[in-house]
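tool=predict chain=A
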Amino acid sequence: MFKSLSGRFLILTIIFVMLAEILIFVPSIARYREDFLLARIERAQIASLALLANGAVDRDLEEELLLNAGVYNVVLRRNEARQLVLSSPIPSPVAATYDLRDTPAWELIRDAMVALWNPQDSVLRVIGYPTQDAGMLIEVTLPSAPLRAALLDYGLRILWLSLAISLIAAALLFFAVRKVIVSPMRSVVRQMARYAEAPEDARRIITPSNGITELREAEEALKSLETELTAALRQKERLAQLGGAVARVSHDLRNILTSAQLFADRLESSDDPTVARIAPKLVRSITRAVTLTESTLAFGKAQEPPPSLSRVPLADLVNDVLESERLAIGDEDISLSADVMAGTVIRADSEQLHRVLSNLVRNARQAIASAGTGGEICIHSEEDDECWRIHVRDTGPGLPAKAREHLFQPFASSSKRGGTGLGLTISQELIRGHGGQLRLEPDYDGGTAFEIWLPKGDAEINF
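tool=predict ok
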């Protein structure tokens, strides 16, 4: 119970009401003590006035008057004269004197606390103003025990009353909180659990109905979240179904195109000049189609193995990539260069990093070749205490704005005709598998530049 919201409200209410009652109790107990003493002064004054009116009285009547007044003796000051009106033996010397004439509130509170917590019975002297202006002042002595007993009785009554008020207030607040706050919150939780059972079912999306502003806002936010999640799940399901269909079609299409490619290869040896002229274009078209289907199948499988990290000489790896790419350049005016410090050894999967660098260099070569103006591609490396950085830069035409917007998105980031848009996506996944990052350098002018960040040790790469 005490772990619940309403249970904690119950405990806090009791505590706070009791604290409030304590703040009320302190000045009220001081007021009660003052009234008690003033009542004793008033009764002593009445007894002394009766004595003054009747003249001398016997000892028994004097003791009865003092007993009824609850004091030991009474002193009146009238007409500048101080007169002992009633007196009886005092059991002990006066322990403390209290003047009730214009006493500050903090002194009344202090004296009340002292009287409440002092268990010893002692004699007190109290000075006050007589009622009805019957003199200049009146002074009485009285025992402290009756005062303390009265204070304890009053304090216990206040305590029980405070406890009763606390329990009643806490119970009312408990049920109010359960009705107004806890029950609507439980309703939202139940609805969330119901929605979680079948998030694809749009009928289970919450309908905001609470009248409390904060809970209504929470329901509105939950409705928006559930609506977006349901739509995303539906889209994901459709994409999964579409992906499965594309994979099956691509698989069969790849087989068909492979056969067509074999037949097209034979057409190149035809003696017919028209066939000989058209055959290379046909072969290239079929080759692009086969590449597209194979890339689509590879991406759809999403089965890239985790990198097998080892110490890799970076210069050797870069030279291997560039040598392979030089074979594809032919008569094009494209130069390849490397700026890698000799002896640089990185921690990576050599095969996967080779694929990434080859893809970046090939994209740069194809972009320069499509522009027909010639250019240069350079692989540059540097390192610090946290990571290795590899830059692949070219002096080509650069990426168009549309390609930059969809960079690294599958089937959307290709800037060349016939491209699949999967190369950069796969490359980024491979680099992320190393704990690194692949990104387009934002401030590079004169072409296109990509940079690869590979961490040293367990460092995290954050741009």
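The chain has a mean pLDDT of 79. The longest strand covers residues 375-383.
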